[in-house]
């Protein structure tokens, strides 16, 4: 019986390899310069597949085995490449359109746990106090270790108004923290604006979604109509913005740059990944949209701008900040950004699933790669938080290297360890304000915002927030 099973497994393996080799072979040849497929490795994969099918202690569906193999393949590349089944792909599409159900956190996988990259403003996660760098170890009674990122995300999403308990490991805390969150339909308003005082406006972008460019144009026109005097300055707030759609970032940049200025360019292995995107409708008004910036008042091309960034500003946020910085169109203020300088392309598959694959690195107009480095502000202004608790791309395992580094694609481990040690030593010498909960952006308690306003008004800028005063009076 055993020999029959083995014979069956080998036959199945051979047939499976034949299928793998024959599927889309012509498309593969058109898209790559590889001379041949790795037949020996594919044969081993098929043999393992057949052994699991025949010998595993319980029956396993073919679809589950294949999906798990695909997930492992993508996860082993870098922190941002992933396989999505049909349901996960639909959820992604809903998220980029600005409405989805869940908790409202941008996450990645780290050492088998779900790491919080940034909580989305006004979401249940944000209001509950989850922070960048938190490691989620349990979802209700389910251990996260052993789940894929997609599985964990599915468990966090669910019917609105239902509860979920997250058990979280936070650096600096002696024991795990628990957060009880109520799921909600996340209706993310990506652009918010308000007048600060006569002549000064404020615009906050929380994500780069399908309609962010149009919403920004409406917000700026609204500010222009309401203002009764010439606009003196604008604060563009990109803090804790995890990124989003590339063309939306180009559109936001184009609102403040001269027409045809270079916003960003990308470099990858395939022809489609090599792009130069400029401040032109052809590059930001895609998918059949009209030019939503054509009626934008010209004063926004010259008004003084301060862009606020922090460690939660990633990807598309860094594209905007980098473009405005390189063209000397704005002063960048805050702390160093996240450092995600890679481009992910969504590639739909024939069965309704999709892969999110890292296909290129992007560069600012002056040729800077911010991958694993981030945007360094023109003026560093502390936000009062402990810098050792900030999460950056360089802290993620398997992160892509920065191509401008002298070592190229060499192992970044030594450099990362040296940076962490230097940060720890610096902390011993510096005093920082107590870490506080979420602060209302553009309020009197928002230290970075008040310094941005000081800069626009020509007043002195304070770079470090005064530490919170602690009473020493005895009872």
Topology (elements, then pairings):
Layout: H1 2-22, H2 25-31, H3 39-55, H4 62-75, E1 82-84, H5 86-96, E2 99-102, E3 105-110, E4 113-119, H6 124-128, E5 135-139, E6 142-143, H7 149-156, E7 163-169, E8 177-182, E9 184-187, E10 191-197, E11 200-205, H8 212-226, E12 233-237, H9 246-254, E13 262-268, E14 275-278, H10 281-284, E15 305-309, H11 316-326, E16 331-334, E17 342-348, E18 354-363, E19 379-380, H12 413-429, H13 447-457
Parallel strand pairs: 11-12, 12-15, 15-16, 16-19
Antiparallel strand pairs: 1-18, 2-9, 3-4, 4-5, 5-6, 5-7, 7-8, 10-11, 13-14, 13-18, 17-18
Task: Please name the defining characteristics of this protein.
6-stranded mixed sheet, 2-enoyl-CoA Hydratase, Chain A, domain 1, Pdz3 Domain, single chain, alpha+beta, 475 residues, 21% strand, 19 strands, 6-stranded antiparallel sheet, disordered C terminus
């Amino acid at each position: 019986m055993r020999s029959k099973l083995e014979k069956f497994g080998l036959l199945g393996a051979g047939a499976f390899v034949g299928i793998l080799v024959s599927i889309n072979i012509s498309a593969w040849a058109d898209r790559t310069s590889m001379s041949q497929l790795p037949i020996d490795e594919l044969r081993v994969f098929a043999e393992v597949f057949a052994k699991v099918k025949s010998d595993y202690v319980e029956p396993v569906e073919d679809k589950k085995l294949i999906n798990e193999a695909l997930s492992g393949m993508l996860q082993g590349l870098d922190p941002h490449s992933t396989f999505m089944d049909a349901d996960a792909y639909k959820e992604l599409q809903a998220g980029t359109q600005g409405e989805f159900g869940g908790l409202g956190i941008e996450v990645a996988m780290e050492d088998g746990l779900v790491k919080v990259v940034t909580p989305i403003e006004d979401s249940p996660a944000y209001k509950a106090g989850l922070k960048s760098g938190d490691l989620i170890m349990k979802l209700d009674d389910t251990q996260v270790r052993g789940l894929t990122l997609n599985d964990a995300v599915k468990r966090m999403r669910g019917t609105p108004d239902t509860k979920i308990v997250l058990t979280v490991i936070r650096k600096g805390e002696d024991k795990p923290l628990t957060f009880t969150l109520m799921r909600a339909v996340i209706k993310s308003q990506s652009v918010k604006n308000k007048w600060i005082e006569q002549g000064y406006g404020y615009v906050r972008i929380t994500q780069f979604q399908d309609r962010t460019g149009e919403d920004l144009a409406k917000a700026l026109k609204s500010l222009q109509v309401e203002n009764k005097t010439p606009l003196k300055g604008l604060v563009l707030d990109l803090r804790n913005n995890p990124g989003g759609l590339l063309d939306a970032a180009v559109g936001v940049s184009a609102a403040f740059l001269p027409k045809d200025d270079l916003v960003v360019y990308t470099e990858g292995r395939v022809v489609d990944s090599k792009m130069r995107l400029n401040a032109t409708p052809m590059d930001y008004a895609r998918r059949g949209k009209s030019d939503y910036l054509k009626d934008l008042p010209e004063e926004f091309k010259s008004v003084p701008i301060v862009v606020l960034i922090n460690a939660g500003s990633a990807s598309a946020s860094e594209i905007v900040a980098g473009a405005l910085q390189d063209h000397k169109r704005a002063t960048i203020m805050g702390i160093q950004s996240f450092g995600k300088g890679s481009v992910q392309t969504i590639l739909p598959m024939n069965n309704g699933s999709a892969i999110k694959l890292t296909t290129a690195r992007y560069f600012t107009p002056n040729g800077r790669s911010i991958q694993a480095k981030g945007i360094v502000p023109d003026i560093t202004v502390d936000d009062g938080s402990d810098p050792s608790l900030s999460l950056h791309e360089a802290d993620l395992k398997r992160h892509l290297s920065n191509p401008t580094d002298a070592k190229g694609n060499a192992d970044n481990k030594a450099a990362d360890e040296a940076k962490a040690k230097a940060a720890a030593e610096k902390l011993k010498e510096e005093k920082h304000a107590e870490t506080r909960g979420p602060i209302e952006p553009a309020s009197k308690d928002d230290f970075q915002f008040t310094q941005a306003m000081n800069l626009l008004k020509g007043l002195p800028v304070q770079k470090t927030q005064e530490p919170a005063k602690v009473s020493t009076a005895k009872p």
